[in-house]
Design brief:
alpha+beta; 45 residues; 2 strands
Length: 45
C-alpha cells in the first residue's frame, strides 16, 4: 500500500427491520458522523 493510501472501507447502518438504511464508503467511512446521524435509534440530547 502506498504512503497515505487508505484501505477500502464501508460503514453500514441497519434499521430495526434488518434492512440497510445507509452505506458510507471510502474515506467518509472513517468519520462515524454520517452513520451516527443516519442511525434510527440514535437520540441526540
Amino acid at each position: 500500500m502506498k504512503n497515505g493510501a487508505y484501505a477500502n472501507r464501508a460503514t453500514f447502518v441497519i434499521g430495526p427491520d434488518g434492512q440497510v438504511v445507509k452505506v458510507v464508503e471510502g474515506k467518509d467511512a472513517m468519520d462515524p458522523t454520517g452513520a451516527v446521524d443516519a442511525c434510527p435509534i440514535h437520540k441526540k440530547t
